[in-house]
Specification:
This protein is an alpha+beta fold. About 20% of the residues lie in helices and about 35% in strands.
């Protein structure tokens, strides 16, 4: 359909999708994907708890200074609404929390968990969107391949800082003060 003839999606379109699906609007287009599967949920939950404890709550002598949420609804203007698996803001940038579910300030870090249903949209559409809105760091985790890729935005382009796999113990920007055991992210590693 020609660009001029295509109807731009709105927030109301997000409320019309089935409960077992997730909806996002990227460049004015509604994108609907199935809710995450077990591997996906496990990786997001494990990483979220590992990063939140020291960075959001200062536990274990961690640095604090961050606000980290699972699946926040982030509005990048009128045309783009995304729900990343994890997102974090430095407390100095997110000084007041929104009363409703909509975050209007670009995060300082986003983590997306990839699946066969989401990988192409994340790698192409969402990474471009995050760059356009100056998100400094994006992590991509693939539970099927057991990998984590760390990207940093430099001069409007994503630079791959490092890639990790399997059971590595890592330190990665912007959370390099702590060690993350990747084995904890993989459902197959659970006892």
């Amino acid at each position: 359909m020609p660009e001029a003839a295509r109807k731009k999606a709105t927030c109301d379109d997000l409320y019309s999708i089935p409960e077992n699906m997730t909806g996002e609007i990227i460049d004015g287009e509604l994108i609907v994907t199935p809710r995450p599967a077990r591997r996906h949920v496990h990786a997001a939950s494990a990483l979220g708890s590992r990063v939140s404890a020291p960075y959001q709550f200062g536990e274990g002598g961690g640095p604090g200074g961050w606000i980290i949420y699972d699946e926040p609804e982030i509005h990048f203007g009128d045309r783009d609404i995304v729900v990343p698996d994890l997102a974090g803001w430095r407390k100095g940038r997110l000084t007041t929390l929104p009363e409703e579910h909509r975050f209007m300030i670009s995060p300082d870090w986003i983590c997306e968990i990839l699946s066969a249903n989401t990988a192409q949209n994340v790698r192409i559409l969402k990474m471009r969107l995050f760059a356009r809105h100056l998100v400094p760091y994006t992590w991509l985790i693939d539970p099927a391949l057991q990998t984590l890729e760390v990207f940093k935005l430099e001069s409007g382009r994503w630079v791959l800082l490092d890639a990790f796999a399997k059971n590595e113990k890592i330190r990665a920007e912007p959370f390099q003060e702590i060690e993350i055991d990747l084995a904890n992210l993989w459902l197959e590693s659970m006892p």
